[in-house]
Amino acid sequence: MCAGRPVGRYVVRPELDPRLSPRPYLHPVTTLGGTAVTELGPADHKHHLGVGVAVPDVEGYNFWGGRTFVRGHGPTELDNHGAQRHHAFQLSDPDGFVEELRWVAGGCELLRERRTVAATALNDTAWALDFTFSLTNTTERVMSIGSPATNGRPGAAYGGFFWRAHKEAVAPEVFTAHAEGERAVHGSRAPWLALVGRDWTLVFAGATEETRRDPWFVRTAEYPGVGSSLAHDARLPVEPGGTAVRRVVTVVADGRLDRDQAAALVRKAVGA
User: Fold this and answer.
1) Assuming Cys at both sites, which of 4, 80, 84, 162 could form a disulfide with 227, CB separation 3.0 to 4.6 Å?
2) Does the model's pTM come out above 0.85?
């Protein structure tokens, strides 16, 4: 709930094919005016599940869903899918929650996640989704996080926070404060990024220094999706007992925002 209106539904224990890497997700997410801005299991990518955390490679296990990119072979069907399992809510209110999850694969827990999600009204036509996740290595060995890019597929450094937007007849526009278009924005390290559809705008902002160091993963032509890249140039190691933390705040607005409007709402949402 936000400003007294339902703006999102969180699915805690989805019933999904194991090949989709089952995990909790937010869908549908809407603007305050009621426009849907997420997609669930679309025909082009059945494993895209609204808003959540998805990682294609944790020590060889697939927590993204679908095929796994194998160096020298390309996308390959493997029996290596993991699952994110809800363990408990530490807090649950109408405007947000704090959740503990277990990332399991091969019969073992690899990571433990603490997820904090909150919705805040910004004005009459915009609200912000504040999404923080921390991944703690609960094993006795290093857990390294990879991506198709680190496994040999250039430009495919997806993995981390990911938002699959609603696909429309015309591809959305995408821009940052200093760049415009998928080719220019994809892979950039920008404080914020705006995705603009027919009558809605999403503005994604890294809300910590560590998060802002992660390049953006962007798709508009093939499908509308935005995420952060935990493993862009190299694998991300998480030592035993160590934790990787990221926080992304997303402005969800009715209408088509320009650069100045997007930047102003980000400052309000992040408090910077």
Assistant:
1) 162
2) yes
